[in-house]
Request: fold
Amino acid sequence: MDDKPILVEKCAGYRVITFNRPQCLNAFNEAMHQALKAALAEAEADADCRALLLTGAGRAFCAGQDLNDRLAKPGETAVLGSSLEAYYNPLVRKLRALPFPVVAAVNGVAAGAGANIALACDIVVAARSASFVQAFAKIGLVPDSGGTWFLPRLIGPARARALALTGEPVLADKAEAWGLIWKMTEDLDLMAQAHQLCTHFASAPTVGLALTKRILDESWGNDLDSQLDLERETQREASLTPDYAEGVRAFLEKRRPVFTGRRGT
Ligand code: LHQ
Reply:
């Protein structure tokens, strides 16, 4: 029984959530899923939370499903399907839908669902010593937690297919070169860079960023015409926010904007 399977730290304008089961490389058990779900709901309900930083305690980001947990018992196909339905799928959907940017600071290995949960974040920064492993192929499973969706879109079908079929690790430098992640940093710089990004987002025009997240995701299913229509409608919505008015005013007055992140009335 873990004391606290995740840790939550409140910073100025954002929160840090740390997977905290370092003895098993922060693999997910049911308690960790439940704690994470509650922490994400609290972050979303807090109007002062304008970004989220997700990372792992110890030497790993997350090794996916805890293979000792009852969710992962061999042969129980229905249980695996239901644990995706109950936990992993809502988690990936929530990360994509949170109304502020989510930054993953991948501090070590990210394997199985752990890799794909990192890829579900809006911006992935990884330490030089980190790696991404589609471990599913090694235990007879298929990539889940959005892996079959994110991988081909991020790195193209040839690389996605080979990674999914071999489970070969991708080191952080290659992950950056391939476009799987935003940036690799030196190990000692990782957390400072991730905090810097979140500090930036804590005073950014949050509603505009949330709308940006949404239309980028929707673009995958749209042709250009539909996407142009969606941009027009979403721009209309963005232009009604107080932050848009402030952004233009500050530009014209040649000063730094003060964005509140609030919706229009
Ligand atoms: C672990 C784990 C782990 C428990 C390391 N569980 N203990 C969804 C729905 C339901 C069911 C099935 O799955 C899914 C989605 C998935 O995520 S499936 C994929 C599950 N994950 C994996 O298959 C990854 C398994 N782990 C590994 O391949 C390696 O541990 C990696 C490549 C992550 C790291 O390798 P090393 O750096 O060599 O570390 P290690 O293997 O020595 O692990 C350190 C410890 O952590 C070790 O325990 P010990 O008591 O011997 O020190 C591992 O047993 C434990 N651990 N992953 N997923």
Notes: The chain has a mean pLDDT of 95. The beta strands are 6-11, 14-19, 52-56, 60-62, 102-106, 109-111, 123-127, 131-133, 170-171, 183-185.
